[in-house]
């Protein structure tokens, strides 16, 4: 793997290209990112597809839930138009970007050494089906050892380890609406280790010095999301953060390079 911290493109280079598309992933990797992070849901016919939201409303400009459409129907949806319109009405910089399947992503980016942070987004009734579909696809895939499966649903991570103990997992945590409801550092670490996670993926507001130290003592690698301020690179070096997940990997890589040059 590359020098720490690893710089991972959040939904690809999503600051500059429509998120969770092959264009965004390609841009992130061409900028020098060590890998990409992306979200996986199930189509109606049980195919793992790459999209963040539960519905197509924001990125597909359509109202349907992802789980209501087959993979063939989903792949006819343009998920780039919204981004081009946001940049400049009538812009054609990104056209005809569709929702990739998980298998298509691995085929498109077969280069060795790419790190894949695969975030499962299971519907309550689809947890086992989504976990099984992802694990089955990875079972014989050359990229298996480069994939970290992450999820807020810790029961889903436990199921991953039941199906294939060799798959690497990361327990995802985000802050609650009020500080009083935030879990303690030790509780976060205990929850991650209880499901056999290899990493803990912390929202940047939870990535305190104390939490990071406790995670490292528990032999958990630490990933922090989503950070676009290059100052996080120096902080990662200092505190032992393994991975930074960012919308703008190019800017973070410039900072990492400057630190290495010092």
Q: Top keywords for this entry?
A:
262 residues, alpha/beta, TIM Barrel, 8-stranded parallel β-barrel
Q: How would you characterize the overall build of this protein?
A:
The structure is a single chain. An 8-stranded parallel barrel has the order 1-2-4-5-6-7-8-9, surrounded by 7 helices. The chain has a single domain (6-261), classed as Phosphatidylinositol (PI) phosphodiesterase (TIM Barrel, Alpha-Beta Barrel), CATH 3.20.20.190. The longest helix has 13 residues, at 249-261. The protein is globular and about 45 Å long. The mean pLDDT is 93. The chain is of the alpha/beta class. It has helices at 22-30, 71-74, 81-87, 102-108, 127-138, 154-163, 185-194, 209-217, 231-239, 249-261, and strands at residues 6-10, 35-42, 48-50, 115-120, 147-151, 168-173, 199-203, 221-225, 243-246. 34% of the residues lie in helices and 18% in strands. Helix 5 links the parallel strand 4 and strand 5.
CATH superfamily: Phosphatidylinositol (PI) phosphodiesterase
Tally of distinct domains:
1
How many distinct beta strands?
Answer: 9
**Order of helical and strand elements:** EHEEHHHEHEHEHEHEHEH
Pick out the low-confidence regions.
none
CATH topology description:
TIM Barrel
Overall pLDDT level: 93
* Global outline: globular
The radius of gyration over CA amounts to 18 Å
Q: In the CATH hierarchy, what is the architecture at level 2?
A: Alpha-Beta Barrel
The biggest sheet, with number of strands, parallel, antiparallel or mixed sense and barrel status, is: 8 strands, parallel, barrel
Q: Supply the number of helical segments.
A: 10
Regarding quaternary structure, how should these chains be classified?
single chain
CATH class: Alpha Beta
